[in-house]
């Protein structure tokens, strides 16, 4: 063998050794990827027995929250809604939906049982940024002026008869301590608002004062939380609706409780014998909740650390970011996307839940949607099929946990009001109204929630439970509650 051949053979051997080392290194790294994913899957586990324990814990917290203020992580707020729509409501009612940087004015024409919701007209108005930090007078004057303008365009046949006022349902999606169906003090602003002079004040009074100032003769008949509105919206068309749940950016639930089962209620018992309770269930917490290192890290980085734990593992604002956090660990500890961690992967909330949903629902053979999302959002190029499959698996783990936990929460409500079992000789049907983009658009989340609830209830009881979508509770629901709390109930509409 000549010198050149010896050198060539040595080079081949050296290359082979490098390739082998590279393969062994990659094999070891891939093993680490699989280990991290398997561990995450295990920590997120929601076996049926654990879900039943969570349902039981939810029921216990509901009892505590109804007994006295501050006794539970669940606020169990008394909504003062003791009359839900019956379906008989007729006439023209209005709604004002203030929940962020925009508000909506709605005009809803109701036709009773025969015609239902006849017509909805609405207008959305952007709030100028400076008004979000100015004074309450300026903000509510702007809202009242916009509302008056919306009403001024009405044809004459919509004008109320002499001696009768227009009635409004006011959805105010900020923390409020309600003192009656049409009054409540603002506890604090969120979502970029900061107007000190209205904190602790009655927001209905502030709006009424501004309406009077612009000559708008309108009475606020109901101050409404959007979850209570969801319940009302569904109840108008289905008298078996007993709870409303929002699964969107955030999450919450409201349900119909027997007034006698509310120890902290101090007033006269309502004639209906019922009271809608706004649970604020996003703040539910239990040792049974399957929390991971990624959930704890997300909570530590949040503005409301230690609060809204249930919301942080089941709602749309957070699911995509939990997936991002696992991908970041895979990239940092197992070279999942190559030798360096993609910079965009370090940005909190860059991966949104709608993007996660699109990847989770990818049915193409090469998971093209997953590849495109990784490229367009995170600037991660040329991913292999096995990498994309892991991404889909992570989406599935996070969505499945969230959906199954939401089902356990609903089970807790059903247990509290005795609708989780079938009583001998009773024909009962219970409908749960759901609203929110997560439930509406994330198909795998929705189907998992529905199948889990059936699994928890068993065949017989699950046949008595119906889940129905209830869109726009914050708008139409508020108008319906104005109708059911109208000063003119029983007055026949012309």
UniProtKB/TrEMBL annotation:
It comes from the Eukaryota. CDD domains: ASKHA_NBD_HK_plant. Keywords: ATP-binding, Glycolysis, Kinase, Membrane, Mitochondrion, Mitochondrion outer membrane, Nucleotide-binding, Transferase. InterPro entries: ATPase_NBD, Hexokinase, Hexokinase_C, Hexokinase_N. One of its GO terms (biological process) is glucose metabolic process. It is a single-pass membrane protein. PROSITE patterns: HEXOKINASE_2 (PS51748). This is Phosphotransferase. It comes from Lupinus angustifolius.
């Amino acid at each position: 063998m000549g010198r050149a051949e010896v050198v060539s053979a040595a080079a081949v051997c050296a290359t082979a050794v490098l390739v082998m080392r590279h393969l062994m290194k990659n094999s070891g790294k891939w093993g680490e990827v699989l280990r991290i994913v398997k561990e995450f899957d295990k920590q997120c586990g929601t076996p049926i027995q654990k879900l039943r324990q969570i349902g039981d814990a939810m029921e216990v917290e509901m009892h505590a929250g109804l007994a006295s203020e501050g006794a539970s992580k669940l606020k169990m707020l008394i909504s003062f809604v003791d009359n839900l729509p019956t379906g008989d409501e007729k006439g023209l009612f209005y709604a004002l939906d203030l929940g962020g940087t925009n508000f909506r004015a709605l005009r809803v024409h109701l036709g009773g049982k025969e015609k239902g919701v006849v017509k909805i007209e609405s207008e959305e108005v952007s709030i100028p940024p400076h008004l979000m930090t100015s004074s309450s007078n300026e903000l509510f004057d702007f809202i009242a002026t916009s509302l008056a303008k919306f009403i001024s365009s009405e044809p004459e046949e919509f004008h109320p008869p002499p001696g009768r006022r227009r009635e409004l349902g006011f959805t105010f999606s900020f923390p409020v301590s309600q003192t009656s169906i049409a009054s409540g003090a603002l506890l604090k602003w969120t979502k970029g608002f900061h107007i000190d002079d209205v904190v602790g004040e009655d927001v209905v009074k502030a709006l009424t004062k501004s309406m009077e100032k612009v000559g708008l003769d309108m009475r606020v008949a109901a101050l409404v939380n959007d979850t209570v509105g969801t319940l009302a919206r569904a109840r108008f068309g289905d008298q078996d609706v007993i709870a409303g749940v929002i699964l969107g950016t955030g999450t919450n639930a409201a349900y119909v409780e027997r007034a006698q089962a509310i120890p902290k209620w101090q007033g006269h018992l309502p004639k209906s014998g019922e009271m809608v309770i706004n649970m604020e269930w996003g703040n539910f917490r239990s040792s049974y909740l399957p929390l991971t290192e990624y959930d704890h890290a997300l909570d530590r980085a949040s503005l409301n650390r230690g609060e809204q734990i249930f919301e942080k593992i089941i709602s749309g604002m957070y699911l995509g970011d939990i997936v991002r956090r696992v991908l970041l660990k895979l990239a940092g500890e197992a070279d999942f996307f190559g030798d360096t961690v993609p910079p965009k992967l370090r940005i909190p909330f860059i991966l949104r839940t709608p993007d996660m949903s699109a990847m989770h629902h990818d049915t193409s053979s090469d998971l093209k949607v997953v590849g495109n999302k990784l490229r367009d959002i995170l600037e991660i190029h040329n991913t292999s099929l096995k990498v994309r499959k892991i991404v889909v698996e992570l989406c599935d783990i996070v969505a499945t946990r969230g959906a199954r936990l939401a089902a356990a929460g609903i089970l807790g409500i059903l247990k509290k009001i005795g609708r989780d079992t079938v009583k001998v000789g009773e024909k009962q049907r219970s409908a749960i109204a759901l609203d929110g983009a997560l439930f509406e658009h994330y198909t795998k989340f929705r189907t998992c929630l529905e199948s889990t609830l059936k699994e928890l209830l068993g065949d017989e009881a699950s046949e008595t439970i119906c889940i129905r979508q209830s869109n726009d509770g914050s708008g139409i629901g508020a108008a319906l509650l104005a109708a059911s709390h109208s000063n003119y109930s029983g007055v026949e509409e012309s």
